[in-house]
Specification:
nine-stranded mixed β-sheet; four-stranded mixed β-sheet; 6 helices
């Protein structure tokens, strides 16, 4: 099994690589790459991300990987977005007034300022499993995962059926998605201990069936 972690200089990619390698086992290869052909050909692709939306999209364009990511998703082959890697799939991101990859209909909005809630959200929070998903196999409902973000995905009504997990931070927001060949999380599985590793293992199992 060869797994590609998309390298566009905007993510905590080495920790993602280590977590995937831990669950994939020694006979599998987890490669951090910016090579479009390797991303197209990989058994499974993970698209992480950290940082400001505008800079992340600029990096994607400069490395000529924006179209590669779109192609990979439309190919029907396994794909997972993580944190900003989820947010960049949407039409528009409020941060830096950024046009996203326009794969998913909707907006990525900043958390509103509310008494007692700090922005960004940094730390552990629970995820309510609102729909069945391959991601949840062996993961208890309302398990805790690690979040670091100031913005959240607000999907358009026509794609709300892809939302499989909700998290409350002053209000409920979509924190996990599954649709066809792709999955995505707002939280960081690689920073989320046992259940985060289980989630990555579930993605690779899901990939085997796509």
């Amino acid at each position: 099994m060869n797994i590609a972690v998309v390298n566009y200089e905007a993510g905590n990619i080495r920790s993602v690589q280590r977590a995937l390698q831990a669950v994939a086992g020694p006979q599998s290869s987890v490669e951090v790459t910016s090579n479009p052909q390797k991303i197209r050909d990989a058994y499974a692709v993970v698209f992480p991300g950290q940082g400001a939306a505008g800079q992340c999209m600029n990096n994607l364009r400069q490395t000529r990987l924006a179209e590669t990511v779109r192609e990979r998703i439309s190919s029907g082959r396994p794909f997972m977005g993580v944190c900003v890697g989820l947010q960049l799939l949407f039409d528009h991101l409020e941060e830096d007034d950024t046009t996203g990859l326009e794969v998913l209909a909707g907006e990525v909005r900043r958390f509103p300022d509310r008494p007692g809630l700090k922005v960004p959200q940094i730390g552990w929070n629970s995820v309510q499993q609102i729909k069945p998903s391959p991601l949840w196999e062996g993961v208890p409902d309302n398990s805790y995962f690690y979040f670091v973000h100031s913005y959240y995905a607000d999907p358009a009504p026509e794609i709300f059926d892809s939302v499989v997990g909700l998290t409350n931070y002053g209000f409920d927001f979509a924190s996990a998605f599954t649709k066809d060949n792709w999955v995505a999380t707002q939280f960081h599985p690689e920073k989320s201990g046992k259940w985060g590793l289980q989630l990555y293992a579930n993605f690779l199992k899901f990939a085997a069936g796509v």
